[in-house]
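In this notation, each integer encodes one residue's backbone shape. One such record reads:

___
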Amino acid sequence: MTFKEQIKQGIPSVLPSKKEYDLTINHAPKRKEILSEEEQKLALQNALRYFKKEHHAELLPEFKEELEKYGRIYMYRFRPDYKMYARPIEEYPGESTQAKSIMLMIQNNLDYAVAQHPHELITYGGNGGVFQNWAQYLLTMQYLSEMNDEQTLVMYSGHPMGLFPSNKNAPRVVVTNGMMIPNYSKPDDWEKFNALGVTQYGQMTAGSYMYIGPQGIVHGTTITVLNGFRKLGKSPKGNLFVTAGLGGMSGAQPKAGNIAGCITVCAEVNEKAVHTRHSQGWVDEVFSNLDELVERVQKAKDNKEVVSIAYLGNVVEVWEKFDEANIHVDLGSDQTSLHNPWAGGYYPTGLSFEEANQMMANQPEEFKEKVQESLRRHATAVNKHTAKGTYFFDYGNAFLLESSRAGAHVHKNNHNEFCAVDNCKKGGEAFAYPSYVQDIMGPMCFDYGFGPFRWVCTSGKPEDLKKTDEIACKVLQEIMEDSPVEIQQQMADNIQWIKGAQENKLVVGSQARILYADAEGRIKIAKAFNKAIKKGKIGPVVLGRDHHDVSGTDSPYRETSNIYDGSRFTADMAIHNVIGDSFRGATWVSIHNGGGVGWGEVINGGFGMLLDGTKEASKRLKSMLFWDVNNGIARRSWARNKEAIFAIERAMKTEKKLKVTLPNIVDDALFDNI
């Protein structure tokens, strides 16, 4: 069968042969046993309903074995034989170009070069799934190949509920992931309901088909590291950034360090992840001996090198060794998947990678104790460095949150002493260290409307990406000539980024690019793309963004951590964002429970939009992109963030139809005598 025929057949009527478990692939760890006997039966019934009754007897023991062996039913037998990657858009079958663009993006999320655990349909973060199983993938691709522009595909946490009549202005796909009743959103609830096959963790861009490989987080980390050194009043050159994680998105950190121009040491316990990033050129050197690592870092400092170094081992050991050896760390952070601490997101010190995987599956309570013990030790080591002048920030991965829950000393008392949370913290939920959003991304970027705007060239041609880079750079330079001084630095950083995008070889998977832009920049760049498509200079382009943006996400410990009016635990903004995008022209929209900070800790929304060179696309992009950004600025301004007040007042001057409720600032002196 041809590729198009395989897509159109959906779930095959004749069972394919069983597939061998491929040990060369990076697989998801075994999930802990959490289902009762009756629930295991229910999980099997749920899985078998995708298949004709005559196949149930053959598939039942196979699915039962998967559930017992891996803690999930992935349906490995139904994994397609064709290569998984983002093909040029014309290679996909179907009536709708918009639907074809979504098929392209789904396959990009599952590309072996992009996905963390491709055979388990997990893109990044240890549990960020595109689908729960291969039957869902096959059925979804079939629906997309059949649909027209007056239908909408409805996706329930990876499950394609079906095609419904709609209209040309409606989204082609509406996605939800993990939208639980609030009281059923604890970590073990995810384990249970995911094992049952009724919900999934879509992360942010994994379950919304908008991940573009680690490039997105490279850019965000580059901006964060540059601004971190600016806060210190230092040049990055010859100075040290220490962090952890080389898996999915965290693998971007050493590349970002190189672009920012510092020395980066990134620890990782998974040898396959280290090998992958080193072979891709995303990390320069690899060490597994701490003494040799110390010697190499000291040499790099002496010579003011720009170099990225992976340490194959636990980051706790690095922090402790650098303290003992008096290696000064300028910037410190962590990007292990601590939103998922008990199922492979964080590996405790004192255990090998293999020992930890066995313990998390077979002795989950003991594993949890080991993780929390390691977090306490981790925090203690970091505290020793910050006492010497290290600037440490939480990179939105729930490091401080989980460390606090473990009893680590990540708070400070009124005497400025490190302590555990009980009888110690001041200022409510305050940690001793800031989230990078509180200190850097919030006030410097999000409040001004700058966030991760991205696009994918559906032709698959590198030359199209090069042309879009040139178009975007020209637009930004033109905007910068008249932009206010408050946003000059953001503009300059992004022009520098886009000029160096080609030479840094950031493409992994689809021909995609990302930069930080505000509503004006996004709209003008998108219009310029649409004109170039109309003239035949480039093929169709998919627009999107990370959910980690101005208005897409409500996350009290990350995206909205610099909201101080008490509303950071509300999720109105994210819900309004996705509703507003859906009737303003998005090709697809998504809303998720869970992201980089954890299940039950965040609600986030995303979109995708196809530009095809038409007048309709031009109208849609202006309406949707303006709302997508300014919804968030309005909320941030109401929280009394001065940068957001400036940005929304500026937006109201340029768009007369926009009228936003502004806060009246209360003089603190009024409270002195009451």
